[in-house]
Design brief:
Largest interface: A-B, 101 and 96 residues
Largest sheet of chain B: 8 strands, mixed
Number of domains of chain B: 2
CATH topology of the largest domain in chain B: BirA Bifunctional Protein, domain 2
Helix content of chain A: 25-40%
CATH class of the largest domain in chain A: Alpha Beta
Distance between the termini of chain B: 85 Å
CATH topology of the largest domain in chain A: BirA Bifunctional Protein, domain 2
CATH class of the largest domain in chain B: Alpha Beta
Strand content of chain B: 15-25%
Order of helices and strands of chain B: HHHHHEEHEEHEEHEEEEHEHH
CATH superfamily of the largest domain in chain B: Bira Bifunctional Protein, Domain 2
Distance between the termini of chain A: 92 Å
Number of domains of chain A: 6
Oligomer: heterodimer
CATH architecture of the largest domain in chain A: 2-Layer Sandwich
Number of helices of chain A: 20
Helix content of chain B: 25-40%
Strand content of chain A: 25-35%
């Protein structure tokens, strides 16, 4: 919402300076967006005189001009076709910022000829799109006259950001009222009295769409003269960026901006019969005043006459009945349209207009009549003469009911806002804002004015009082001691997410945040089952139309993008949601990561040869996450049933009971190929919600640590087992030989090849034995070793390698 | 004889001193003290002597043996030290070569900011609540006092999902939450007051340009009790922004604004300076402020919202606030472009990301 300081002062009697106005606007909730003083901004642009204009020696289309400025003669190279000796122009010296070009002028040479300053076009001044030539100024202006004086831009423009609840401040008068309430001055009275009609309007109005149009006032005015509006009105409109059109149109625009009361003026001679307001059907045609042709949406508020649709109520008028300079008789409309209906139509048909902006928010229903009377008065003043005749008002419908009262105890202000404002001040503020107050025992009955449909309850009244009194006067109170609900702020799920993130990044993965949605086709490859419940109805693009079933594809794509930039060996992770259904429990939190390319790269002191990532890297990552989340890795059961986006032979699932805790492995080569990935990629997904909450029966206390004083022993074995025997089964069998004494068992070599029969493998394992009560005797140790060999033989068919 | 011993001692001592490596010294030891060594040989002659002579000579020889052993030991230590010194002198490495080292990854700025916010608000006694990304019309709009026909409810701002046919009423219409405020509603419905919670998460709006992404993150705070008022709101947010930006005297301004779910509603600005093109958060030394930067919206929870959650607004009242996580991260860490948060460019992640071992906590403050 834009207006000028002088415009504001038409309504507000005040002596305060601009700065105070600007600050107060923000303080009372009418946030200042911009204060623009064009006089200052355009101070350098002044009238100059072109003494001579010669053809540039090296360019056909350029002229070398000698220009007399208030500071002497300057030489300027100019490409404008209209540049010629003897004209007056707007000159900007070097160092000036040219808004339309977004450059600051510098002294320069153009094809070898010095040029100092610029003669500007309207486009360069952001006045219009005209850039065929430079601005030519009437000879009557002296050299040195300010550009802003000539163009009526000597106005200081204020732009505020209006919140959607403040319909009343979509007009300058409403803003002035608020500022007056805030103590910046007094609101000047204005004449809204009736203009006496002398005849009955020959045009009548009928409302069929009583939902869309509650109230419609109309009147005929005969024998008006339309034409350019007076300079003061043109300047006012120009100052806020509106183009003056004709007196009648300018008056309606003024009423819109000044009073937040959009009106419409029809050429009465073009109207056919009476006006009927009805809901439109889909596809009715309208050539509108915004120079566009529309086909209506269904259920717009149609203004019609015998010819059909002539306008969309509250949004835009039609060309067929519009006023022109030849218009003699007019019909003026002031109506109250249903805000949700104008908003709906505006959206459906994608029409923005100053009228719609105000009707959408809700215009003052009580000012429907006042508005047409004020407009009538203006039309008489600007377009009327002795022959002009005003009809009586035609009225259809009634103003929507807006009167309500709110029971209010002034103590509530302190209770809600923690600030003490005495009763009289509170009531004064409300009164100044136009609220009516009636005492009712200990309380008051407060009635909001017709222009404040947003004020519904006592909390709204408190806001009115406190915003005018000043939010900044409320004293801050610390909440540190107030109702500390808990000592542990994080849920278990969030704690797991945080530690998972730390574990993954600590082991070299960079954390990403990727979209929750992905292409439907890609989601289908990663287990979405094409769930239609998770397809967006209105995606931003088909690339982002399905809620993700897995984080991995996003990370794989991210890895590909990075590979294209030369980062092929990469580790990425993310903690975030995946979606199974659209119900609240259909979402789960996953910690996922991928590694692509080489896990071990060339290094002068590398322990290993360079190698690609493999499933064990992913397994290690998954286990690191589980351990960080307080879960003992030895508790998980392994199986081979990972989803089919993993390589079926090189992937695994970790379960605890029925719950999947994690899955890991190489990504399926076919899927990588379809995704255009050439690198090897491994990944894992940890289902954070399935990780059991660590039980702590004794609070934070850990179980008592028992340390044996005896030296632990270590023994190596090598077993030949069938290829398909799991290493974990061999280890479990070995450990089962003595669950007390054997504290650890680890595979340190896996061998197939020479010396081992085909279909078999050799597993070398190391066993750690911790004597508990006494050092083991040779015999005891011998027995234990034999038990290990027997256990592996019995449970896994393992034979000690000779 | 004594002279012989004395001579022998001198002779052997000289040989010991001239043994210049451990091998020579060991040979030397064998030739003197070994089974066939010179002193051993002399010891063997003791058997043929009479008792007196054997006694004196025996003592002298034993003394000689011990002395020589001591000398050899001494020489051995000296040679060992010499040898070690020589070895160490030869074992110099190029300490500028890169070590074998596991690279650390980086925490994303969004996670970092969320952890910082959690640390600050946990310190003020807030706990964290959670809610789903896929919401319905009731939780996202109706319960939050968005009137029917509010623009946010229409197609252009909100992502919609197919209706949930099994649900009832306003729960049928499924959508991606446009703000984390829906979590307030779920929390108030499921828990008894007083409430003192924060929540964060992904939020979604159908917008994609320089300053908007279809997915972004918000943080929401809620505190409800019988006498929680706007002074508490100010105190809470003042403590928060000063802790977050780590500026003790950061100027703050509250201005009236409008959100359907609060009344009164306010926006919070912090002091900043845009001198010299850049953005610097904070006021001037003299307490003046060059400009203001909007950082969050807040207000007293609207009575209709309380009612929608089953709370009597005549008894309970309190405040809520919300902010964009990315915006906070951008302001604090000088990240210029919102869209880059989601590009997963490792160069960006490593530049703007955070060390996994240096997590925000209340002891050091949440600056990083």
């Amino acid at each position: 919402m834009k207006f000028t300081v002088n415009w504001l002062k038409n309504h507000l009697e005040t002596s305060v300076n601009d700065e105070e106005i600007c600050q107060t606007l923000t303080d009372i909730g009418l946030e200042l967006e911009k204060f623009e003083d064009k006089t200052a901004q355009f101070a350098a642009f002044k009238v100059a005189y072109v003494k001579s204009a010669e053809k540039h020696p090296d360019a056909d289309k350029l002229k070398v001009c000698s220009v007399e400025t208030e500071n002497g003669i300057e030489q300027i190279v100019c490409g404008a076709p209209n540049a010629r000796a003897g004209m007056k122009v707007i000159f900007a010296p070097s160092g000036t910022y040219i808004p339309g070009l977004d450059i600051t002028l510098k002294k320069t040479k153009i094809r070898g000829v010095e040029s100092n300053g610029m003669m500007v076009s309207e486009k360069e001044m952001c006045l219009s799109d005209a850039h065929e030539g430079i601005i030519e100024i009437d000879d009557k202006y002296e050299i040195g006259t300010s550009f802003t004086d000539i163009y009526g831009l000597d106005e200081k423009v204020i732009e505020i950001c209006l919140t959607p609840n403040r319909a009343d401040c979509a007009g300058v008068r409403g803003i002035a009222r608020d500022l007056a309430a805030a103590g910046l001055g007094t609101l000047k009275p204005q004449d809204e009295s009736e203009a006496k009609g002398t005849f009955k309007s020959p045009i009548n109005v009928k409302i069929q769409d009583t939902d869309g149009c509650k109230l419609f006032y109309g009147r005929v005015i005969k024998n008006v003269k339309n034409g350019a509006s007076p300079k003061w009105l043109q300047d006012m409109l120009k100052s806020i960026g509106l183009r003056p059109i004709s007196a009648l149109v300018d008056i309606t625009n003024l009423m819109t901006m000044d009073q937040a009361r959009p009106l419409h003026v029809y050429d009465a001679d073009k109207l056919q019969g009476n006006i009927i307001v009805r809901a439109t059907n889909e596809g009715e045609k309208l050539d509108a005043l915004d120079d566009k042709s529309y086909e209506t949406a269904a259920n717009a508020i149609g203004i019609t006459d015998d010819s059909g649709l002539i306008g969309l109520g509250g949004i835009v008028g039609g060309v067929s009945t519009s006023v022109t300079n030849d218009t003699v008789n007019i019909f003026v409309e002031s109506a109250y349209f249903n805000p949700s209906r104008t908003a709906r139509t505006g959206r459906d048909m994608a029409i923005q207009s100053d009228a719609r902006y105000r009707f959408d928010r809700g215009v003052d229903p009580e000012f429907t009549k006042g508005g047409i009377e004020m407009a009538t008065r203006l039309i008489l003043k600007l377009c009327g003469d002795d022959d002009t005749q005003v009809s009586e008002l035609v009225k259809a419908g009634d103003a929507p009911s807006w009167k309500r009262s709110i029971k209010f105890n002034t103590n509530y202000t302190e209770k809600l806002c923690g600030i003490k404002i005495d009763e009289k001040s509170q009531l004064d503020i409300l009164q100044r804002l136009g609220f009516e107050i009636e005492k009712l025992g200990d309380e008051y009955e407060i009635s909001p004015p017709s222009w404040r449909a947003d004020v519904e309850g006592k909390a709204d009244l408190v806001e009115e009082i406190v915003r005018i009194h000043g939010f900044n006067k409320i004293k801050p109170i610390s909440v540190r001691s107030e109702n500390s609900v808990t000592c542990s702020a994080e849920t278990q799920n969030l704690k797991n997410a945080r530690t998972a993130r730390a574990a993954m990044t600590a082991s070299g993965m960079n954390e990403c945040v990727t979209w929750s949605f992905m292409p439907k086709e890609l989601a289908a490859k990663f287990g979405s089952n094409d769930n239609p419940a998770l397809t967006l109805g209105n995606p931003i693009s088909s690339e982002l139309d399905q809620m993700r079933p897995s984080i991995l594809p996003n990370l794989i794509e991210a890895a590909s993008r990075n590979a294209a930039r030369g980062f092929e060996n990469i580790a990425l992770c993310e903690v975030g949601p995946v979606f199974k259904t659209s119900k609240p429990d259909g979402q789960s939190t996953i910690a996922a990561g991928i590694r692509a390319g080489q896990a071990v790269t060339r290094h002068w002191a590398a322990d290993q040869n360079p190698r690609n990532v493999d499933a064990y890297d992913a397994k290690s990552d998954a286990l690191a996450v589980l351990e960080a989340c307080g879960m003992a890795a030895k508790n998980v059961q392994m199986s081979r049933d990972a989803p089919n986006y993993y390589h079926s032979g090189r992937s695994g699932v970790m379960r605890l009971g029925k719950n999947i805790i994690a899955q890991f492995g190489e990504l399926h080569p076919a899927i990588l190929e379809e995704m255009g990935v050439k690198n090897s990629v491994v990944g894992f997904e940890v289902f954070l919600e399935n990780i059991p909450t660590p039980r702590n029966k004794n609070g934070a206390a850990k179980p008592l640590l028992k340390l044996s004083p005896f030296q632990p022993l270590s023994r190596d074995f090598a077993f030949i087992v069938k290829d398909d025997i799991n290493a974990s089964d061999v280890l479990r069998a070995a450990k089962s030989a003595d669950k007390k004494l054997i504290i650890d068992a680890e595979i340190f070599d896996v061998y197939t090849g020479k010396g081992v029969e085909g279909g078999y493998k050799s597993l070398a394992l190391n066993i750690k034995i911790q004597p508990l009560d006494a050092t083991l005797t040779e015999g005891q140790l011998e027995d234990l070793m034999n038990n290990v060999i027997d256990a592996v033989a019995n449970k896994c068919g393992g034979v000690l390698r000779g | 004889m004594t002279n012989d011993i004395q001579n022998l001692k001198e002779e052997i001592s000289g040989e010991i001193k001239s043994a210049n490596d451990l091998k020579a010294l060991d040979d030397m030891r064998v030739s003197v003290l070994g089974k066939k060594g010179r002193i051993t040989a002399l010891m063997k002659t003791l058997g043929g002597m009479d008792a007196d002579e054997r006694k004196t000579k025996g003592q002298a020889l034993n003394a000689l043996k011990n002395e020589i052993a001591e000398l050899i030991k001494h020489q051995e230590n000296a040679l060992k030290k010499q040898e070690l010194d020589a070895r160490i002198a030869n074992e110099t490495i190029d300490i500028t070569l890169s070590p074998r080292r596991q690279k650390k990854g980086h925490i994303h700025p969004i996670s970092q900011t969320i952890e910082e916010l959690t640390a600050i608000f946990a310190d003020m006694g807030f706990s964290v609540a959670e809610g789903p990304d896929i919401e319905d019309d009731f939780y996202n709009f109706t319960a939050l006092n968005f009137p029917a026909g509010h623009p946010a409810r229409e197609m252009q701002d909100t992502f919609f999902l197919p209706d949930d046919e099994q649900a009832q009423g306003e729960h049928i219409k499924k959508l991606l939450r446009t703000h984390t405020s829906s979590v307030q509603i779920r929390h108030m419905q499921d828990n008894e007051p007083p409430h003192k919670i924060i929540c964060f998460g992904r939020t979604y709006r159908s917008d994609y340009d320089m300053t908007h992404t279809p997915m972004f993150h918000q943080m929401e705070g809620l505190m409800i009790d019988k006498s929680t008022n706007m002074g508490h709101l100010k105190g809470c947010l003042m403590d928060f922004v000063r802790a977050f930006f780590d500026i003790d005297d950061l100027p703050i301004q509250f201005r009236p604004s409008f959100f359907p779910f609060v009344e009164p509603g306010a926006e919070v600005d912090i002091g900043c300076s845009r001198k010299g093109g850049g953005l610097k958060i904070g006021g001037n030394k003299d307490g003046s402020v060059d400009g203001w930067l909007e950082i969050l919206g807040c207000g007293m929870v609207h009575p209709n919202v309380l009612k929608n959650c089953g709370l009597d607004p005549e008894i309970y009242q309190g405040f809520a606030f919300g902010m964009g996580i990315e915006r906070m991260a951008m302001l604090k860490y000088g990240i210029p472009d919102l869209r880059t948060f989601y590009e997963s460019d490792v160069r960006w992640l490593e530049h703007y990301g955070f060390d996994p071992l240096d997590r925000p906590n209340n002891a050091t403050g949440v600056k990083s």
